[in-house]
Design brief:
This protein is an alpha/beta fold. The protein has 20 helices and ten strands. Helix content is about 65%, strand content about 10%. Helix 17 links the parallel strand 7 (about 515-520) and strand 8 (about 545-550). The chain is elongated and about 115 Å long. The chain binds adenosine-5'-triphosphate (ATP). It holds the Pfam family ABC_tran.
Length: about 600
């Protein structure tokens, strides 16, 4: 999982490289952004013209006791300019808001699609909060920067430069004085950039970790409450939240120190300018109007100068957000369809594993592979139980069949064809899986069960399939829920009991009408009577469907035609339950431990 770590102040990705990657997304909306930019620039220029009118008012009208009509005309011009400025600001928003929001949505959808494509191994490494914050807050920041930050940074830079030029036209000494003030600001800005970027990266990563913590504690609320671990979890959250707070404060301090320079230097220069300007007016080298205009310009550009500091901060945070976004987008998926996928010659329903080896990516090279050399043939239409001690790699082996993980070596064949040669979507349509930890979606029972149902079915066929799957899985309880099978089952199906969730997940696997069914201990949460009923029904539907079923209970083993015993990363023996019982000591040991587990579970349940 990606954890927030202190970041080197030297940026590994230059701003230009990040902007280059953003360019293809921005390109289609550039004309509208440009129009918005022109409006913003126009508003900035109009704001600068107002001091010119003031100078003219002081020099030409008030100075020579101008008639009141001229005063009124000047006032009308200032008011009209104010109106034009407001209108241009309004137009800027009109031009940029919609395309920026559109770009945010487009990038978010692309990000989501990419997450769906990334392999299970990626999701096992990354915290959900990190992905959540990258898809939500990071992209919102980008929208705000595009719609406001980026163009205002340019506009305010242009406004400040234009203001400086105008100052020079009124008095070159005062203009030069103001210009010299930009030197310490530039030096400070250089240092600020590195410090702020590092703090910004750390705070965005920490916010992602915090989101993961919230997600995990909400998800695991039952466990936390049951174990009375609320205060402990709270402590952990508290310390994470405090770390984020400290980073935010450090970030704000860095910005505040930069803004101090950005505000204090021009103000000091203005004080000096006042002394020099008054002296110039006294000796007649500067008009009163020019001095008024100088101060009015300084007042107008004081906002943009300060704003540039804030906008620089916003730009750096957005760059960090983009880097975080592209980090995920750069993650590659090596479990993909081949360029030229082939379909198997006969869909005979066989599943074979030849010399299959597998080690989890993070342990590869340093640990013994979980699966060392698996050889297994499951005949067409056969139900095979997979048995082994806990942690022996049964679930891992199942994941290799629909290519949720990739074999490190060896081959897995479905219908006689290597799974790597299949079109991935087609392969996963052929195979349905029910996992040990059932995952349901916060939608209706109907949608959950029919998740993998063939899309070509009519409404009546879908209903018939739903009824059949619920019947096989003994999930008739669904009909007596308030809205029957159209009842919303709450986030992750937590409004259902463990056994009910498991039956819905089993019904979902059955409704996918697969030719290969992979079941990871699908009956573990059922009581003995329900398991018996499900087993009976499963026997009927499993005829003709090749099934590999992980068994943790002797009753599940009874479902199978043959049993494969997994031991030390190899298939130790294959045969009927009775044959293995009489010939294999390790099998007797495993079955005895399964019996113990069952007795313990039954004992716990009856207590
Ligand atoms: N994502 C993973 N990354 C690294 N190691 C893993 C991962 N998932 C499982 N393992 C390890 O692989 C081994 C086999 O796990 P697996 O879940 O396949 O066993 P299992 O036989 O299904 O166990 P159980 O009967 O308890 O369900 C275990 O030692 C486990 O710690």
């Amino acid at each position: 999982m990606a954890q927030a770590q202190k970041v080197d102040s030297k940026d590994p990705v230059p701003l230009s490289a990040t902007l280059k990657r953003l360019y293809p997304f921005v390109k289609p909306i550039l004309p509208r952004l440009f129009c918005g930019f022109l409006c913003a620039l126009g508003a900035g220029i109009v704001a600068l013209v107002i001091p010119q009118v003031l100078a003219w008012l002081v020099n030409s009208v008030l100075h020579r006791d101008g008639v009141s009509s001229e005063v009124w005309i000047s006032v009308a011009i200032v008011a009209a300019l104010g109106f034009v400025e407001a209108f241009l600001i309004f137009m800027r928003r009109q031009f940029v808001l919609t395309p920026a929001a559109g770009l945010e949505t487009k990038m978010r959808i692309r990000f989501y699609k990419h997450l769906q494509r990334l392999p299970v191994a990626f999701h096992e490494r990354w915290g959900s909060g990190q992905l959540l914050s990258r898809s939500m807050s990071d992209l919102s920041l980008l929208r705000r920067w595009l719609a406001f930050g980026a163009m205002m940074l340019v506009v305010e830079t242009v406004t400040v430069i234009t203001g400086l030029v105008l100052m020079f036209t009124h008095s070159w000494i005062l203009g030069l004085l103001y210009f010299l003030g930009s030197i310490p600001i530039a030096i400070k800005a250089y240092r600020f950039r590195n410090e702020y970027r590092a703090a910004s990266r750390l705070s965005q990563d920490q916010a992602g970790d915090l989101a993961t913590a919230v997600e995990e504690s909400v998800h695991g609320i039952r466990v936390i409450k049951a174990f009375g671990r609320g205060p402990h979890i709270y402590e952990g959250f508290n310390s994470q939240a405090k770390s984020l707070q400290e980073t935010e404060i450090a970030k704000a301090k860095t910005l505040a120190s930069f803004l101090l320079t950005v505000v204090a230097v021009p103000e000091t220069i203005l004080g000096l300018g006042l002394i020099i300007g008054i002296a110039q007016v006294a000796n007649g080298t500067l008009s009163v109007g020019a001095l008024v205009a100088y101060f009015a310009i300084a007042a107008v550009i004081a906002g943009p100068v300060e704003g540039m500091g804030m906008l620089l901060g916003m730009t750096l945070s957005t760059k960090t957000a983009l880097d975080r976004h592209f980090e995920v987008m750069d993650a590659t998926n090596d479990i993909v369809s081949p360029e030229d996928p082939s379909s198997p010659e006969h869909r005979d329903g066989s599943v074979e594993l030849h010399h299959v080896r597998f080690a989890y990516p993070d342990t590869a090279g340093t640990h013994r592979p979980i699966l060392a050399d698996i050889n297994l043939q499951i005949r067409p239409g056969e139900t095979m139980a997979l048995v082994g001690i806990t942690g022996s790699g049964k679930s891992t082996l199942l994941n290799l069949i629909p290519r949720l993980h990739e074999t490190t070596a060896g081959e897995v064949l479905v219908h006689g064809q290597n799974v790597k040669d299949w079109d991935l979507d087609q392969l996963r349509t052929e195979i349905a899986v029910a996992f040990e930890d059932t995952t349901l979606f916060s939608t209706t029972i109907r949608d959950n069960v029919l998740l993998g149902a063939p899309a070509s079915l009519t409404e009546d066929e879908r209903q018939a399939l739903l009824d059949e799957a619920l019947d096989v899985a003994q999930a008739h309880f669904a009909y007596s829920l308030p809205q029957g099978v159209d009842t919303l089952i709450g986030e992750e199906g937590l409004s259902l009991s463990g056994g009910q969730r498991q039956r819905i997940a089993l019904a979902r696997a059955i409704a996918a009408r697969p030719s290969v069914l992979v079941l990871d201990d699908p009956l573990s949460a059922l009581d003995v009577r329900t398991e018996e009923l499900v087993t009976e029904k499963l026997r009927e539907v499993l005829t003709g469907t090749t099934t590999l079923i992980v068994a943790h209970r002797p009753s599940t083993v009874m479902l199978a035609d043959r049993v494969a015993l997994l031991r030390d990363g190899r298939i130790d023996a294959v045969g009927s339950h009775t044959h293995l019982l009489s010939t294999n000591e390790h099998y007797r040991f495993v079955i005895a431990s399964l019996d113990d587990e069952e007795l313990t579970t039954a004992g716990e349940a009856s207590r």
